[in-house]
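Async update (no meeting this week)

Hi team, since we skipped the sync, here's where things stand on the single-chain job. The sequence we agreed to prioritize is pasted below, unchanged from the tracker. I ran it this morning and attached the output directly underneath so nobody has to dig for it. Comments welcome in thread, and please keep replies under the output.
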Amino acid sequence: GRSQSQIRSGLETACPRTMNRLGDGANEAVAEFLASEQLERSPLGKRFADWAHGSLSRELADLASLEAALAHPLPADSEALALLGSGQGAEEVRLDASVVLLELEHDALEDPAGPLERLDEPLLIACRSTGDGEVELAELEPHVYDALRELATATQGRPAASLKLDSETLSALRAHGLVVPQRWAVRKATAP
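Output:
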């Protein structure tokens, strides 16, 4: 079996603000989470955030999703990090392998004493591993989020033009490492 107290302790590390906001209901939430969970090799906070979307309020689910993305970042895309800046004119692009896209209805970035602020428009965020243990957050405009969501569901690279983003936006996404070339060009160089 699995220890409810160990799972709670792990969740208090991975999703501390969510667990704090659950207050007296934290033990019940952890018990329900454990009862519904299948054994799976994925980070605890991520599994809890996925469960929260169907079992807790949207406010707590948003917060758990953000905390899980920060506590359990996907591994940095070492190929993209090593070649960052090259391939700026690549025809086909893909989403960096470490990017997690979040659509939050509540301002989970703030930590007020009361309820999280419900936003008029969703907060659209891209989280990317930097390779040095940090996670960068980028707030996205809706049309940019939609383009990145399209890349996230693609099984292979997409023509950059198909994203329907202006060149300035596409350059910024490349500069921040959110969008990377599907393939990098190999240049022939001669040694002196």
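Quick observations from my side:
The first helix runs from residue 4 to 14.
The helical segments are 4-14, 16-22, 26-36, 44-55, 58-71, 78-82, 142-153, 167-175.
Reply here if anything looks off.
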